[in-house]
Design brief:
Layout (H helix, E strand, L loop, with lengths): L3 H4 L6 E4 L5 H8 L19 H14 L3 E4 L15 H27 L3 E7 L8 H9 L3 E6 L17 E6 L32
Parallel strand pairs: 1-2, 2-3
Antiparallel strand pairs: 3-5, 4-5
């Protein structure tokens, strides 16, 4: 169940799905804004479960978040994903597309009720150019904005060189401060392969 600290708020300013360790939610809360519960496996939520989806839509309607933010799983849509068995990739994409369609349903509610949504993907993600994603973009009058994550402090934990990571932010919010392209004044670390710990750099 959702902790009381979130439920006592009449409306949420910001609600993050695929939140991971909820870094963005923590930053928003630090600014004095009201957040919804970060939605991720780490916090006990699974967007693939029908019962969880049902509850999320109930909360969306109840708390009317001013901004719904998501970071849909990007790995199966990467152009760099060339070593995966093609049949397995097709199955994984179909499963993730079903989850993405649920995200679009939530984003539709935001749009219809004059609230905002935003989601991020690597700029080269093939998810952005799927027919359903493009149709939804047009339907909700969304815009694509591009930034480089090296300008936001993303770096390799071992070499401490910045990752460029060109990123697309698609949604209904015009961004100003967040949209910064690489200034070319530093050397980038490649965001592929593994760290010494064995952890993938893309995780």
């Amino acid at each position: 169940e959702v902790p009381e600290k979130y439920m006592k708020a009449k409306q949420w300013d910001f609600w993050e799905w695929w939140a991971g360790k909820a870094g963005l939610s923590k930053a928003v809360e630090k600014e004095g804004l009201t957040i919804g519960p970060p939605i991720s496996h780490e916090t006990g939520w699974c967007l693939k479960l029908p019962s969880h989806r049902k509850r999320l839509l109930e909360l969306l309607v109840l708390k009317k978040p001013k901004i719904l933010f998501g970071a849909p799983t990007c790995a199966p849509w990467s152009r760099a994903c060339t070593t995966m068995n093609p049949q397995l990739k097709t199955l994984i994409r179909a499963e993730e597309l079903e989850v993405f369609e649920f995200w679009m349903q939530a984003a539709d509610i935001q749009y219809q009720e004059n609230r905002d949504y935003l989601y991020e993907q690597p700029r080269s993600s093939e998810l952005l150019n799927t027919p359903k994603a493009l149709a939804h973009k047009d339907k909700t009058e969304a815009i694509d904005q591009h930034t480089c994550m090296c300008m936001h402090g993303l770096e390799d934990p071992e070499s401490h060189k910045p990752y460029m990571k060109q990123t697309t932010l698609r949604g209904t919010i015009p961004l100003r401060k967040s949209i910064v392209w690489c200034n070319g004044k530093h050397e980038h670390e490649m965001i592929n392969g593994s760290l010494k710990s064995g952890k993938l750099r893309t995780q």
